[in-house]
Amino acid sequence: MLSTSNGHDDLVDHLVRSTPLGRGEAARVVLDVLAYFDETVEEFVRRRHRELRARGMGNEAIFGRIADELPRRAVSPPQLSLRQLRRIVYG
Fold it and tell me: Which candidate, 36, 27, 37, places its Cα nearest to that of 6?
């Protein structure tokens, strides 16, 4: 059985309860989504350029589209120290 082993078992459980997905399928979906949003800006730009180029788009259109897409990307939070986490909670 595939496990997220990243502390996302609660999300897998939710997907199993709320969709027709089995546990293994739900875990794969969670891992795929996490990997998608874990891309760096550089990785995203390179991947989108390859994808759009494969569709026959030219660079001018590609870079305009990527520039429009970037602000809508989820950004991975910075790694926070325990002190920083405590400051978030307690000020």
Answer: 27
Q: For residue 87, what are its two tokens?
A: 């400051």
- Calculate the alpha carbon distances from 87 to 82, 83, 84 in Å: 9, 6, 5
Using an 8 Å Cβ cutoff, are 16 and 38 in contact?
no
Q: What is the pTM of this model?
A: 0.61
The CA radius of gyration of the chain, in Å to the nearest whole number, is: 18
d(CA 66, CA 44): 9
Give the pair of three-digit tokens for residue 59: 């660079």
Instruction: Encode the chain (91 residues) as per-residue pLDDT tens digits.
Output: 444 556 789 999 999 999 999 999 999 999 999 888 888 888 889 999 999 999 999 999 999 999 988 888 876 666 778 888 778 888 8
Helix, strand, coil % over all residues of the chain, rounded to 5? 70, 0, 30
